[in-house]
Write a structure and sequence with these properties.
heterodimer; A: alpha+beta; 2 domains; B: six-stranded mixed β-sheet; 29% strand
Chain lengths: 438, 227
Amino acid sequence: MKLADIVRLSLNSLTHRGLRSWLTILGIIIGVAAVIAMLSIGAGMSQNVQSRLSGFGADIITVSAGSTRAFGSGGTFTDRFQPGEPPFGQSSSNQSSSSTTSPTLTNTDLTAILSADGVEATTGIISGRTSVSYLSQSVTITVEGVDPSVWNTMTTSTVASGRLLESGDGMSVLIGSSVASGMFDQNITVDSPMLISGKTFTVVGVLKESGTGGFGGDDRTVFLTMDAARNILTSIDPSVFTSIQVKATSTDTVDATITSVTNALYASRQVTSDTKDFTVTSPTSMLATITSTMQTMTFFLTGIAAVSLLVGAIGIANTMFMSVMERTRLIGILKSLGTKNSEIMKLFVMESGIIGLMGGLLGVFLGFIVVGIISEIGFNLMGLGVRMAGGTSTSVAVVTPQLVVFALAFSTIIGIVSGLIPARKAASLQIVEAMRSE
Amino acid sequence: MNPVIELQDVKKIYQMNGVITPALRGVNLQIAKGEFLAIMGPSGSGKSTLLHMIGALDKPTEGKIILDGVDISTLKESALARLRGRKIGFVFQFFNLHPTLTAVENIELPMMIAEADKKERQRKALELLRSVNMEHRARHLPSQLSGGEQQRIAIARALANDPEIILADELTGNLDSKTKAEIMQFLLRLQQERKMTVTIITHEPEIAAYAETVIRIVDGRIAQGGS
């Protein structure tokens, strides 16, 4: 029999079984759609994180107090906490083994870091959350105290209007793009007055939207000079920094710089890797941690989705076995008319292959719809973060052409494999016995 | 006589759940080219088994079956399939049409299996449909046809690849007496026009009367007629 005729007969049989064929195909549709959705969301999230982290200066290293072993990227969490509070994720055993009080970062550490190899510049930063008012509307915002003379050389952000902070600035603030528009009902422009903890400041600059939550690019942060910040964030000890930012001499040697900074701090703080009471992170190390965490999650979710695909495959095998049983007599007839065993086998494998391919095609289509819906919901759920970051450019889920091709090939193969055993059974039937069956 | 079919001491023993049932106990038979043969016998006598052996639908436990000079017991499965498809046309008691193909597609099916050219096979299917006076039912499914109509389609299908041999197993068993006569007249005309070898199985003497030669099978052996 010619291949075209095998396809014709297979399609004839599938269409005559109507609803049953569609239900079998539905099993594969759901499985493929689930796998597509999971893998796309995984790819989208990792693309999202990468694009957000790329806004960080790749040569900037962050040192924060406290050691977080459970979560490598702890720096981003710990530097949002006031010294005196245990940083998020820090285990109590860690704390008690290092000292009786919470570890802090001071000028001594700054000096130690500056003398380490591969360090071009370093600056201490204090940050905390406090009430900020504009036109009688109050919002709690993160304020950061920086040393403009160093910070300006390290930041990757640029101003949209006005200027960066200068060393002599007293009651001046530089605000992130979201602070300027979005967080308050009224947009804030350069030269507007803002009330921070009861003191009046003047906006001297608005930063361009960076899309990142990282160093010098936080859209939702108000920047002040160090002295002004210390007057506001009075709960922070005057000798203490929330975090220290280090600029490496080259982006290529960031890893070496991390090692030298870590070693310098071991020496100056008189701790070892076991009693370590600080954390050194870089965008690269954070990216690696987040990516591997997300890969694990994607792997896990895809695994669950793959189970539904497996159930779909069993559905095909089941349908094909039923179909062989029901058509035992027809198989006998076809053989009596000269159909070879190998052709009977091809007929059934073709049928299950078509079920797989159809399931794959429609599954990819449904997957696209699911991904579209999840992207919409994702923007709302992950919320402000994504939208403020300029939601149009970042995506929650990405369906790549490779994924589509893979899904189609995989579902077809699943169909063929599920049909193999029933097909072999059909081919091996004895003609006379087969024709006797009802 | 030049036999187109020759059986030499053919035995068939069925074995099921340890029970051994001999169906054919040594049959010798020669069927000449163009002969119209009827095999008669009570049910369980082995006449259907004999027809299956001749038609290469089943293999004998012992003995030789020579079709057109070729010992078919030596052939492989695929060669047997090709032989069935091209040299033999079957007509069965229960018609055995493909249930989801139309009448004309059913006639086309053996040619499709034999990989005939698509246009040629469609032309021939329509021609055969006309020869059995069924052109008005071309697009009907078997379930939409009467028993007599289905059997006419089945006969047309059996002729599709111009076989040398037609084997029919109780082909009138499910038909009323008027239709029986009609079908048998049709078969007789075919046999004479096309010089085909026809072998039918029947338990009805009035059907066997259409044949030139009649043999009787009892208990797996030829009791009367044959060679």
